[in-house]
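S.,

Sequence below, as promised.
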Amino acid sequence: MNFVEKKIVVIIVTYNGAKWLKKCFQSLEESSYKVNTIVVDNNSTDNSTKIIQSFPKIQLIQSAENLGFGKANNLGIQKALELGADYVFLLNQDTWVFPETISNLVVVAETNEKYGIVSPLHYSGDEVHLDESFETYCKRKTKSISDNIDEVPFVNAAAWLLSKKTIERVGYFEPMFQHYGEDRNYTDRILFHKCKTVVVKNSRICHDRIITRNFKKDCTQAKFRILAEVLNPSNNIIISYLKGFKSVFGLPKYFLKFYSFSKVLTMFLQLLGYYALLKFHFITIIKARRSYK
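The prediction came back faster than expected:
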């Protein structure tokens, strides 16, 4: 198959990521599939912008504030489509690709326009073991489509290939999310539009991170998990709110294995208050859900 005519634009959101950027950018330069790269910097306070500007082919969008993951990516996606992108490849700042990573994703994406999110295997920084969270997502796979392609209900957005058609069908990231949860909301919308999230096993990236527990972060992620439940367009609004309410109890119960009872009680009270706010924002929720259709 010949994909010479397909224009791929890589979008990377950066924030104080100086220690990773050179390796990430250099790996893209060595890609066998030539790409354009847009970097959206979320007002970094380290020397990230200097490193970005040392790669003259990269187009830099500098934000005056930290927009978070989704809204910053939306800026990049909009610019990529203006530049005539056939595909955008969303890539985290703390990752790097291999020469065949992108070409192998495009080969699969071109076989079926219902492949809404096309993701490689995510390895850890040692290039040997799978990223811990990614491995969990893979174990929940829906089915094996082929020896090389697995359908999964969710994969985090550290490396997503999205076609222009997918973006036109599904839309951009939901701006109600600040930093966590945007990718889960998007995969829910992919399913709503009868598309699939797939992992391509002959394509890989490395995600150089160490996953540690952080109570504040876990509380924030739990809140946005509830928001994702409430916004899920595959359920009617009543069912969505009921599922969100169920998560107010279920998520703290899950975290009992990591935190003391008093901390989990604090989380529960935070989630209960957050859920109450979502009920007050019913009209906003309705408008967001309608925009997905």
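The chain has two domains: 8-207, 215-291.

Coffee later?
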